[in-house]
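call fold(seq) -> tokens
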Amino acid sequence: MSERISAALDKLTPRERTVFELKPNQGLKLRTIGEMLNTTEETAKNTLFRATRKLRAESVGAEKLNEVLKERYEGRKDPRGSR
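ret:
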């Protein structure tokens, strides 16, 4: 993973990073992630949205981010799959 992406991930809150990594890595539904974090599915969805928006604001282009995620989680569901 490039330094630029690592630096951007470091700027996420612990909750944002957890949701951002659980969704594609574990292939979990947002409802399940919400339950794990003692919150609602909607809050997990909003947290994932904020994390993604922050990463893009840090000049991590969507193409590069998707490329890294694909390499990192090859063989898993598309991170933009079911919610």
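The mean pLDDT is 80.
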